[in-house]
Design goal:
By secondary structure, the protein is mainly β. The chain has one helix and ten strands. 20% of the residues are buried. The chain binds copper (II) ion.
């Protein structure tokens, strides 16, 4: 094989590796949205589907619109709706976690301004895996009046 051809092959392999790596992000966020707030309302809720290629945990969330963002779980106990704070949200590999009305959601406290339909809210999601490696994923969520 000529060295020229070999060089071309190496280059081709490198290109393939790079493009392959870019196609599948380690953590992907889909179906994200934030519920529009009513006048005078100081709390809000955000929803999304999170899928990670490997086991990890959502440990912290920052937002452009709220001072504090907590992970909450809603459930019905003895006919009473309860909301409980979860310190973190554990994600299994390749298993989508649905944050949706009636279940898990992100609770936004001390809104800096009303959540108006058509606006966008930015979130920085901090994940920590078993080796304590942190990954930050930024996502823009549209504000909607009802579940899309
Ligand atoms: Cu809540």
């Amino acid at each position: 094989m000529s060295s020229k051809l070999l060089g071309l092959l190496i280059m081709l392999c490198a290109t393939l590796l790079v493009s392959c790596h870019q196609e599948t992000p380690a953590i992907s966020i889909t179906d994200q949205w934030v519920r529009a707030s009513a006048e005078g309302q100081e709390v809000g809720a955000a929803y999304m589907t999170i899928t990670s290629k490997s086991e990890t945990s959502l440990v912290k969330i920052d937002s452009s619109i709220a001072e504090i963002v907590e992970i909450h779980q809603m459930s019905i106990e003895n006919g009473v709706m309860k909301m409980r704070m979860a310190k973190e949200l554990d994600l299994k590999a390749n298993t989508p976690s649905h944050l949706a009305p009636g279940g898990y959601h992100l609770m936004l406290f001390d809104l800096k301004k009303p959540l108006k339909a058509g606006d966008e809210v930015q979130f920085s999601l901090h994940f920590k895996d078993k080796l304590n490696k942190e990954t930050v994923v930024t996502v823009n969520s549209p504000v909607k009046t009802e579940q899309p």
